[in-house]
């Protein structure tokens, strides 16, 4: 969450505020606009909050805390290069084509997308996707990962999931990809969506 002081919103002030990326604005509290119409315009432009300089400290704290909670909400979409994940539809798209994932496959790729570019251990996958506290003596992860990779291969994305040298798996991405998410407007606090999978 960020706080910006806008002061008087002349054209230069508006230009400075509107230079903030659209996907970041929802996490910014703007202080300063005295008129209700200016604050309303800021909210319509996508800023998370807008308050006058004269705001009561307890109100400021409450609004800042509410805005800070937004950073813990689950994203509706995650996009990594040509891979797009839609949490509400529980569907994945590779280069615009549906992958038709089963719930466990979607949970696996969503979990890998939590930390793109970083390996996720088999223990973490078992705990977060299967909700088990131990790694069973089966090859269930390998079987599901093989099916997931095959479906990704059908849309030209065969190499997006790498096997980590220490065990586990890694969703390959770039730093630019990691920044692109859109959030569920009425979402709740952060938790792994896999926990809803039976």
TrEMBL record:
<dbReference type="InterPro" id="IPR016032">
    <property type="entry name" value="Sig_transdc_resp-reg_C-effctor"/>
</dbReference>
<dbReference type="Pfam" id="PF00486">
    <property type="entry name" value="Trans_reg_C"/>
</dbReference>
<keyword id="KW-0597">Phosphoprotein</keyword>
<dbReference type="GO" id="GO:0032993">
    <property type="term" value="C:protein-DNA complex"/>
</dbReference>
<dbReference type="GO" id="GO:0000976">
    <property type="term" value="F:transcription cis-regulatory region binding"/>
</dbReference>
<dbReference type="GO" id="GO:0006355">
    <property type="term" value="P:regulation of DNA-templated transcription"/>
</dbReference>
<feature type="DNA-binding region" description="OmpR/PhoB-type">
    <location>
        <begin position="75"/>
        <end position="173"/>
    </location>
</feature>
<dbReference type="GO" id="GO:0000156">
    <property type="term" value="F:phosphorelay response regulator activity"/>
</dbReference>
<dbReference type="InterPro" id="IPR039420">
    <property type="entry name" value="WalR-like"/>
</dbReference>
<protein>
    <submittedName>
        <fullName>Two component response regulator KdpE</fullName>
    </submittedName>
</protein>
<keyword id="KW-0805">Transcription regulation</keyword>
<keyword id="KW-0902">Two-component regulatory system</keyword>
<dbReference type="GO" id="GO:0005829">
    <property type="term" value="C:cytosol"/>
</dbReference>
<keyword id="KW-0238">DNA-binding</keyword>
<keyword id="KW-0804">Transcription</keyword>
<feature type="domain" description="OmpR/PhoB-type">
    <location>
        <begin position="75"/>
        <end position="173"/>
    </location>
</feature>
<dbReference type="InterPro" id="IPR036388">
    <property type="entry name" value="WH-like_DNA-bd_sf"/>
</dbReference>
<dbReference type="InterPro" id="IPR001867">
    <property type="entry name" value="OmpR/PhoB-type_DNA-bd"/>
</dbReference>
